[in-house]
Queue: 4 jobs
Job 1
Amino acid sequence: MKISTVSELLSQDITLIDVEIKGWVRTFRANRFIALNDGSTINNIQCVVDFENTDEAILKRITTGAAIHIKGLLVESQGKGQNVEIQATSIEILGDSDPETYPIQPKKHSLEFLRENAHLRTRTNTFSAVMRLRSALSFAIHKYFNDNGFYYMHTPIITGSDAEGAGEMFRVSTLDAKNPPLTEDGSVDFTKDFFGKEANLTVSGQLEAETYAMSLGKVYTFGPTFRAENSNTSRHLSEFWMIEPEVAFMDLDGNMDLAEDFMKSVLNYVLENNKEDLAFLEQRQAQEDKSKPQAERNEMTLTDKLRFVVDNNFKRVSYTEAIDILRNSKPNKKKKFQYLINEWGADLQSEHERFLVEKHFKCPVILFDYPANIKAFYMRLNEDEKTVRAMDILFPGIGEIVGGSQREERLEVLKEKMAALDIPEEELWWYLDLRKYGTAVHSGFGLGFERLVMFVTGMGNIRDVIPYPRTPQNAEF
Amino acid sequence: MKISTVSELLSQDITLIDVEIKGWVRTFRANRFIALNDGSTINNIQCVVDFENTDEAILKRITTGAAIHIKGLLVESQGKGQNVEIQATSIEILGDSDPETYPIQPKKHSLEFLRENAHLRTRTNTFSAVMRLRSALSFAIHKYFNDNGFYYMHTPIITGSDAEGAGEMFRVSTLDAKNPPLTEDGSVDFTKDFFGKEANLTVSGQLEAETYAMSLGKVYTFGPTFRAENSNTSRHLSEFWMIEPEVAFMDLDGNMDLAEDFMKSVLNYVLENNKEDLAFLEQRQAQEDKSKPQAERNEMTLTDKLRFVVDNNFKRVSYTEAIDILRNSKPNKKKKFQYLINEWGADLQSEHERFLVEKHFKCPVILFDYPANIKAFYMRLNEDEKTVRAMDILFPGIGEIVGGSQREERLEVLKEKMAALDIPEEELWWYLDLRKYGTAVHSGFGLGFERLVMFVTGMGNIRDVIPYPRTPQNAEF
């Protein structure tokens, strides 16, 4: 007989049918009620054991974490919390789980403990919900771009170029680590390395994505990127996933339209398709908040926060206007900001971004036209020669979630920018070629995928939204 | 006015409307006919220039590769090859393309030359078709798994484990390459490296995918994997993308069902959604074949080859049966095989796989139950203790395209296998935990994405189906 999933059975209208199911025991109480889960939904199905007619030896092996195979009759449930349950007629133990040693007991574990047991943590409600949402968000992203005529592009992970400038890089090598070959002048001879030159892990696929936008029109990347920075915070990973769309003939206004439509669409997708996991995580967040001091509690429920983004127009404000607002704001005047805003040119911190979104505008905000010297070399210089056509999208609770720009499409201006930053033209000859041959206005943005998953799930530590986090001193599993 | 795409205009039924379009000039002939492409389709739209009323200076700048902006009237075309064309009323040059230096001229370029200009090669019909198909195949894969209740999982790229055993690995490090810190005994002190231990790029996400299958039920990976092997062939990359589904409670038969259904579904998707690109590549292959010796020509057209997979049941044959067939085959007896099959235990080569598919069975073939000693440690041992529950799927033209297995779910058997291969248990403690706590039958397979793209596009060199190939001595762009 076909093995059903818990999800299928719980949404089953017809009862009094024979069913078969395989899954893992979450709890077993009163020698009678098994809560069984198979990952297909956050909900368990209740399996009622006829303990008087079941072998004692089998009953003892129905422990939390054990894999079992149940045959039985699907019936309407008398208990509360579920519509249907299974009256088990046969129970087979597929794999035992020793209750003395099994780490995932039916009690609250700390997130730190579960990180150390990351190979088992999706056996909890919290992590299974987070990872199902992560998967749903991934699909929503691919679906959005596919529906809108974008091509998915796999940009290279190993790069011979170190000109991207977005951060510290990891070296990729097969040289003898202890005795690398040396050149005559005594430096490491990377011409003998695997790729014939020094190679690193990519920090961004944008520059390569631009090459494809300038031929295929609309493209996006969705792949891993790396930062070798020694940041041990709840917001940084050494390995994380990024989404980077890039579109030819699109200016910064078009970029804002795209980003707003994209973010709303992706959030709408999970609001429609992942109600149960969201409801669980919303409740979890509310529960967590109770033990926090008032100031650290979330002002909105999880769903309200998603609705806040989906239902509001994003307010578009220039950096210059934003600085004025912040300079004259109460927290600035009363010195409540950790970093006070004194003058134009300051880099905004999360506290400022959140103030704009949560207190001042009360809607998602897109800041644009940032000072050139706090942004990357490839952003298009405005006529004022002081600002660039950059944009950051700010969300409640987290501040910046998306960063993008119109790219500098003028060969001479780009060369000047690179020269000023000592980026050698030979390193990016191919990037410059795009401005030599059929150049055009084009734009794009980057979204750190884990930041999005944190926003949607309400998890406070980025290590808890990726299966196996890589951070300084940690590459376990 | 809205900027239309070429794809939109070519499928437009209504004519005599004002339209606006931006794209790149493919050709400009007779000072009159611009073939314009914007990447949205392989087809160009013809724009007819009123050259008598157009500035001579502008006409001169309409060169291959130039980016232009055209306004005009969409009309029925008198010429053959297209239904509609644009009578241009305004032509703006957005970005020039110097015909003296632009590498991508309207003539046939060698694939080698285009590889050196990989940043511009999607401006050709061949590469734009290949990369659109690559994108469509990616989406088809995500859609298939999403539709079938699988969760997408991002397995780690940087791994601290070197026990996967699938191949040579790249080291990831931030240590000083020239003067690495040493331990007292004089070896490199990796505890001082970024991750506190030696770290490498992953060769497979399977082991981590198993951890999620054993909680979420059905999962898959789709991410980059790496091999530091010095293989300079048309079938090997140092960096490539893999798809690895993994399913709890599924045995090898279920694995075969899944793989067959999956491959058919993905190929059906592009047969339905990418007709024009496939038709172009089919024609290209036929053209290429003309200049090849008879023996190297394709026996089937591109579409026939895809239909061969979609329309036939995959024949399931044990390794032992296959060896018998091969041993008694004509090419073996007449010593036509490069590697003769003499006895049970031999590893099959592509020539043998293709013989089985193309000559003997005339349908895709799934071989199963391979000798244990030519397969990986994690495959489930059969009762005969000689073979494992492995499977390879063989396709026409390329041989093996999918490799999978039922995994060894028995703790003691797995430990013995690891001990025999000197894989330390401490390295894979978490993998062993899956067998300690709620173990169950589970299976999965791996598909090298670029092999699939080669199969679908008919491209003969794997360097031509990924945007920026990484191979020994090459990490350009």
Note: Residues 125-167+203-464 of chain B form a domain with the BirA Bifunctional Protein; domain 2 fold (CATH 3.30.930.10).
Job 2
Amino acid sequence: MSKPTAVFYHAGCPVCLDAEAAVTRYLDQGKVALEIVHLGTSKSRVVEAEAAGVKSVPALVIGGQTLHLNFGAALSALK
Amino acid sequence: MSKPTAVFYHAGCPVCLDAEAAVTRYLDQGKVALEIVHLGTSKSRVVEAEAAGVKSVPALVIGGQTLHLNFGAALSALK
């Protein structure tokens, strides 16, 4: 069975980059495959993020949960 | 050298419990030792959380960063 995927959504903001560093470093990548999505450059994925309950970035969608990590930018600002 | 400690602060709220489940499951505990602190029952540690920059719970203090995970309750409500 392949590992489930965790998706980290961000927009390149300073708060995003700090959170990305922490997630990349401390997430147990033996349990999940980490995908990092920049919604500023991958605008087509904003809809997917929204469907997962992402209201702002940075956010991590993992194991059926959406965790907003601090606050960088509202998703609505990225549309 | 002992592992650095990551501290997860919460207050038993539903949002806190969800975040705790994700942190407990997905944090790489080979890299950090996870300590879970319930600020509702350990009120003496609110000052320490505040000094670490925690504004609300649940929050994870890790590797010099303070990550607020969604929003359960303001720290000021726990004093």
Note: Chain A touches chain B through 22 residues (CB under 8 Å).
Job 3
Amino acid sequence: MSHNTFGHLFRVTTWGESHGPAIGCVVDGCPPLIPLSEADLQPWLDRRKPGGSRFVTQRRESDTARILSGVFDDGDGPVTTGAPIAIQIDNEDARSKDYGDIARAFRPGHADYTYQAKYGVRDHRGGGRSSARETALRVAAGVVARKVLGETVRIRAGVVQLGSHRIAPEAVDFDAVYDNPLFAASADVVPAWEAYLDGVRKAGSSIGAVVALEATGVPAGWGAPVYGKLDAELAAAMMSINAVKGVEIGAGFGAAELAGEANADAMRLGEDGRPVFLTNHAGGVLGGISTGQPLTARVAFKPTSSILTPGQTITRDGIETEVSTRGRHDPCVALRGVPVVEAMAACVLADAMLRHRAQVG
Amino acid sequence: MSHNTFGHLFRVTTWGESHGPAIGCVVDGCPPLIPLSEADLQPWLDRRKPGGSRFVTQRRESDTARILSGVFDDGDGPVTTGAPIAIQIDNEDARSKDYGDIARAFRPGHADYTYQAKYGVRDHRGGGRSSARETALRVAAGVVARKVLGETVRIRAGVVQLGSHRIAPEAVDFDAVYDNPLFAASADVVPAWEAYLDGVRKAGSSIGAVVALEATGVPAGWGAPVYGKLDAELAAAMMSINAVKGVEIGAGFGAAELAGEANADAMRLGEDGRPVFLTNHAGGVLGGISTGQPLTARVAFKPTSSILTPGQTITRDGIETEVSTRGRHDPCVALRGVPVVEAMAACVLADAMLRHRAQVG
Amino acid sequence: MSHNTFGHLFRVTTWGESHGPAIGCVVDGCPPLIPLSEADLQPWLDRRKPGGSRFVTQRRESDTARILSGVFDDGDGPVTTGAPIAIQIDNEDARSKDYGDIARAFRPGHADYTYQAKYGVRDHRGGGRSSARETALRVAAGVVARKVLGETVRIRAGVVQLGSHRIAPEAVDFDAVYDNPLFAASADVVPAWEAYLDGVRKAGSSIGAVVALEATGVPAGWGAPVYGKLDAELAAAMMSINAVKGVEIGAGFGAAELAGEANADAMRLGEDGRPVFLTNHAGGVLGGISTGQPLTARVAFKPTSSILTPGQTITRDGIETEVSTRGRHDPCVALRGVPVVEAMAACVLADAMLRHRAQVG
Amino acid sequence: MSHNTFGHLFRVTTWGESHGPAIGCVVDGCPPLIPLSEADLQPWLDRRKPGGSRFVTQRRESDTARILSGVFDDGDGPVTTGAPIAIQIDNEDARSKDYGDIARAFRPGHADYTYQAKYGVRDHRGGGRSSARETALRVAAGVVARKVLGETVRIRAGVVQLGSHRIAPEAVDFDAVYDNPLFAASADVVPAWEAYLDGVRKAGSSIGAVVALEATGVPAGWGAPVYGKLDAELAAAMMSINAVKGVEIGAGFGAAELAGEANADAMRLGEDGRPVFLTNHAGGVLGGISTGQPLTARVAFKPTSSILTPGQTITRDGIETEVSTRGRHDPCVALRGVPVVEAMAACVLADAMLRHRAQVG
């Protein structure tokens, strides 16, 4: 978490602006001998890429990822070598002229003002460095992280709340997520949600959402006291995603209303003689270390700030004005956030796995 | 956030167990020539220390902090020298026998099981390293951080929700916090909350709570893209506090229900010609960089896991048993969490200040 | 210094193999508003690039660097934006077949064996990740570092010893370095050294050398106790360069033979009333912090391991064999190491400058 | 190597000044279940502690180390728990008055001036933070590191050059080191060296020295490309020791005079079918990764700067003066540097071991 780098041992550094020639990442610290090719990356990138449905931005990007280093094929197919893995995606549809009129005005809800305030300069084209386009690289890195984790750890996420429309906890079905264009964690809500989001979209508006995350197969013992807590790392990872405004683990904010008797997860011995928890209010983490239960979290996304309705703002020269987004945008940025949430969880867990292995063997 | 160290440039490393001889921290990277003495630390430590009211644990600790290095008095009073500042607090009331019967059983909701699973050994006495006693050092480090930040930045927190009892946002008054034993951010709720928490306490139960945080005076420009986001650092800092299960910035989870028009904070020019935001749904952060508005966050604490009611659990030898806490405990751990939330915010901001100064000057 | 990343605040991450499609680096933490274009990089890269004379490898690489992110031209020419700067160089002349016969044999003196031992796989083509080709990126990053440092700090290096041929300390003239193909720090030695190195080259042999470094204009106060010492950072930077086997600061190993009276640099007041040192055995560093005197160091390079004479070795399948280098190589790898030494010094100093500014302002 | 912290996974943070109440360190990242007690520390500390012979400072310090955290005795003796290990040594003989007259004058060769220049304040008492007293903590941390490494890795060092008196490479005998008060790596030189150093001591002068280091039992594969090279880490570790001015690995500066044929270490198969090197010019490292051969290095120490002869200097108020050391001092600081060199090597190797285990398993 050092500016543009994430992770301690499984380290991801990203670079690139929305409308520059390309974006890329370097994944360092990856174990060797893991089969990895560009074909592994593409299906995951496709889930996040623009243009996939009417509910996401119509920017045309194939999001084709190339691996430029760190893998080698010595006859049995490409494997990681332990050297840094450079992944690169060219920007193809960078219509800078779309953004010409906002070169000077700060779009409300965007990072335009803060980048200018911090650096005294900003690449305004499409949001530059602050564009959600950067998250494609998180997805790519997440694929590598999943490979590091292996088959046992399964990471899934999905939209469980769209605006004020909620999926009941007992109805959450992560298997449904990639079968509907809303990334909804229930097939049942899709028709109603589609109608609702169509309305939002046609009005040139946007809406927030909540994404739920679940990682199963995480063994007990990953994470570390007291500042390297697994949930602290996860919270940072999620909050680093564009538009995220809240993170909760397990019972989360709901735990604030619980009595101690209701919140503590009782332990018994399972049929195989191994410890089992009867509930999972902890969300799979106690004292910053995984319990062996599913790791569960919920992530709140604000609505896309790019909307049709003109918003009051100022220019960098200190003139009051109004600005609206005429370019392409997502009516609900959380949708494409689903694979990003999964990817960041994968990176956190791969890092935790390596760190655990380092200290405990 | 490397195991037991927090921060990048303003770095805090803590050590010590609940029932060891002492606990301590090392604050490295502190700017020189800042007046600092033990007398500066004590008032803040006293706010967190046990035994202050019937609503917190009755463990008797004076929590007297000694500064063992990094300050020097050359005639004008002690100032920081730029060298690491070691702060130490002796453990005085470590009644290990209170915990003798839980040496083998894993207390539900505590980190007993996960520490054992990770390390194969744990200092069970009073929770050892996972005890909330460690947070005294965060408070001490937070005092140093406040000194680094100076008078302009003001950091305040308070309990705004106790169980299901809420203080309305418009009624939040941080000035009230340290004038009542509940650290409640409103004097009005205190009688009712006291009655309620007395009931919880007498029943040997516990309850969760939400702590609100506000930092004013933070200039626009602190923080960094994209993994070093100010809100990502803040989320990690808060989630690293014992018992915290959720963090939200600005509108937080509420933003998930907002339309883009409602969420985006419009900008105008103030009377002094400087940018002003008409609302603050962003909570003072856009794109991971501070806007100059108040930094606002809310932190959810789970109920204390130590309760009188016996809970089902197992021993490390794999035997099913029940365990209850007969030792001293806090009926609502969030109360003493208030100064800890403030301290962690101070550490995050001091670190952000130094990092900003490094890159931008 | 985390695997493939160098620096704390001015951070350089490199990636790429000798015979992959490209090599690249990401420079993160660079201050904004620094003019920077590809034209700035090229002259320095040209100094290191192959094919420049008969004394360096004849591999044909234009070493044309492209900047893919982190700079923006808002009308007054491209400047850094504070975002990560991605620099990329395509590999053009990657004759993998030259190396076909050494795919299995470990070349003595190279990292072939150790990479295989560590990772169980290696990109053997041209040395893969361990190739000195990576140092082109150090030179590119060094250009950015020089820009951060500004005009006041001047960093120069040159060959002062070639095999057993030495330039006397009082004859060292860094102005001569880039005017002769040997990067010798004296024009006087060039004819004799050329004749000597021609002999080495024609014999298919190689020879070691020592490069001297001097940085002037470094103000007193950069660096930090006690593990972040400026000379410790510099030593790590130099030792991380391919083929380097020794580093000394100031009087270096010579200081081992000095008495305290001879070694300590006396201080007086200069004409301007500022402190001056009468000698500089310290090499510009005391206690890990710069004194304001020139920073001086010497760096020992071993001879190129690629030589024509067959050397005894084994294959990765455990068979004894002999291997010689028929590909292109440098008779003295230290020559092209000169701009690399300068670049690493620039990176160390830029990092130290930002770190100092962070802590002290 | 972040200011006062050393290491990546096996992390040592030290604090404390020469004449403060105590000095201490925190060792974080240590694997659990390693037997460790205060009795383990003392023999190593005793080797470095002052007052052991007439050749080292007569300051009276028992250097008794207490372990305040991170170990727990659950019945089978104290073992590490994976939590941070705090080690503390009280300062007993801090005669501040000895240094009263140098409170304002900068001692030549010391860090007085640079600390003042950097921080604008310095704890002048006995050198404050820059005192070699800090190295006691390195020795303590080194004991923990040795425990992490286990019995297989053996780390030894000794003085091989005292002023211009050298021990021939073939005569180096590390077994002799702790049997003579000069830490000389040969019993044969002791009488002559004692006579020589007595002369230096009686003259109130000092002399430099070279310490050789050897670590056997390091398996092939530790270390990492390209900035995390094992030798780069080792160089930084050594250069961070007080008074060190040079580091060389294997043939070191001598490699600059070698031809490629002479320098490259040929490989053959040993009797057990495993790779063996016929020579070790590389010093056990190729491409930054260990070869499995002994790791060898040489470290140059400058003479103690504290000498009886008055040296020209200035005061912090800008007045020219002279200063001499009337306090206790070491005629050759390298002597007590021997256990420090060993300890730093142990820390580097323990860190490398954990990092290797993390990435490769």
Note: Chain A has one domain: 5-360.
Job 4
Amino acid sequence: MSLEAHLQQAVLLKKVVDAIKDLCKDVNFDCSEKGLQVQSMDSSHVALVSLLLRESAFSEFKCERPTSLGMNVDSLSKILKMCSPSDTLKIRWQGGADTVSFQCEGGEDRIADFDLKLMQIESEHMEIPEQHYKVVARLPSSEFQRICRDLREFGETMQVKASKEGITFSVQGDMGAGNVLLKPREADKLEDKVSLTVHEPVTATFALRYLVNFSKAAPLCGSVELGLGPDAPLLVKYDLENSDNGHMQFYLAPKIDE
Amino acid sequence: MSLEAHLQQAVLLKKVVDAIKDLCKDVNFDCSEKGLQVQSMDSSHVALVSLLLRESAFSEFKCERPTSLGMNVDSLSKILKMCSPSDTLKIRWQGGADTVSFQCEGGEDRIADFDLKLMQIESEHMEIPEQHYKVVARLPSSEFQRICRDLREFGETMQVKASKEGITFSVQGDMGAGNVLLKPREADKLEDKVSLTVHEPVTATFALRYLVNFSKAAPLCGSVELGLGPDAPLLVKYDLENSDNGHMQFYLAPKIDE
Amino acid sequence: MSLEAHLQQAVLLKKVVDAIKDLCKDVNFDCSEKGLQVQSMDSSHVALVSLLLRESAFSEFKCERPTSLGMNVDSLSKILKMCSPSDTLKIRWQGGADTVSFQCEGGEDRIADFDLKLMQIESEHMEIPEQHYKVVARLPSSEFQRICRDLREFGETMQVKASKEGITFSVQGDMGAGNVLLKPREADKLEDKVSLTVHEPVTATFALRYLVNFSKAAPLCGSVELGLGPDAPLLVKYDLENSDNGHMQFYLAPKIDE
């Protein structure tokens, strides 16, 4: 057995897959003793998706030697729809096999399994250089999703402007111009907080259609982290419940005004 | 500042706009010291929409001189989707400006605003003569909506027949003929009541597609008032929560049988 | 009056009609002193639908002499949408009339009625021979619906394999191969149980699109019964709440492998 990975809750992988479903068609799951990793450009080769599921996220994890398993994201999503939220999930791959097996159990008397055909996907390994962001903002992930969706109605492009006073999301279009301003906000629950770490104020502009897709990862984590720098790609990051277990990251290059 | 109007609950304007969204494309908001008013034919020039938001509906209202602000209803609806149900709304227009500003606040740490471009809309001011209806019926607005929707499945035209005994909504079509009869009904809550004030029994016929659209205003008020007269337009009226604050009225000419 | 049938709850007929709506276009309701019966091939002449509503299902039932009333299922569904879940329903047909009347009452102050035009439908009376199934399986109807829907995503055909150990539903397609295994399961509520009566293990293959449609009858009954035999049609059976009152049965011929 070259890979054996058990998740206590199948729903974790389900949320991960749903989060990238509208961005990527086929992806490589890079397996190593450290866990599972996906790095992929979105279908239009503009945004970068980076998932890390550390071995600690699994109740059992064994990977004999590093390997890349290419899967169709849509198929994966259909397989995971067979799992109930509380089901456990076992992923198994025998070295050399052309299928990977997903087995999902809810109690002892219901077992659903699927042998998914693997694909050869050309993998362009990307080195993501560690960034030192001028601004790191943390806000409720549902709020971020709502802002992206609301502003998407008015235009294609969103300007983000962050300073110590707050973070403003702006749009301009045929109907007029709109802004949503969030000020830093204390709260009991981490996911209700708005916090800003500002080394230098930043203003940058991004394509809304990607942000709308990134923000669909909201079910993964109550809060989202945005990393901003001048002329740097935007980082949109969701921790997996326990941040030690990994994260889902999206990167998007800024739009440069002519 | 030529207009400054604050609503305690943005949701009121949201419901109003949703109620006319499927009928009118662009409308003039006529502002005066009395409040805001919309009078508009529907896009097919068959039905008449008449909205009155009295200044008492606003927590603050100032209008220096009467003016007409032309807006696209769909844009307005998108702007108001940015407001949460409990948000406050501030509408501002500076004399002469070509945009009107909507600012929606939920607490102090989230402010969404939008500057909507104004439009020139030819306004045909209509005098709606005070009618003395032969029948005034009051019924639950959700019931009215359901009847219109259900009967719409069977035909294009609805006959309304009202007497002291009750009000009957009828339809005829290829599948057959159907009726819904409501009898006067006492109830604790006003919105559950069915009451009929009948000076003279009335029978009249109307195009269902408009009634279905009117009845979408149900979220504005738990009960709806129908005014009927022989050969007179039908009145469909929704009070704004507190009826002193205004109302939403629809008028529809009857169909004359040949 | 040739037929007078009263149902305490209109919703029973509503569920029945919804269950056959996607299978049959026009059907004959065969009325006799025993109750109402529908036997019809589905529109593609592959599956057989058999409904029995015994006279005991009605609070009042009178049928002077056997007759067949041909109705359009879609129209019937629209009429029954006029009924609230707790409404009573009265079905009336006067011998020789070309319409059948449905009257649905919720309390005394709301009466909806519809005179549905009858149709002449060529009725091919089918004798369904009593089958002695090698396997009779009983499982939660919602579970059966979910399995059919989930597997439908992967292929056109489902293999059912039943033995004393359990029942396995399998599919094969371009993405790979999947199975759902249910083992016998005790439970307090009948509708949570999985039970298998096995005279001889059976393996048979069926077209999933019909099974998906059959399984929509789930609201009729918490559990569903499957009858299987080698080379025999599959029986999918839903009792009406009280099984003495009748049942809804679907039959589907197996796919023969070449």
Note: The domain at 2-117 of chain A is CATH 3.10.150.10 (DNA Polymerase III; Chain A, domain 2).
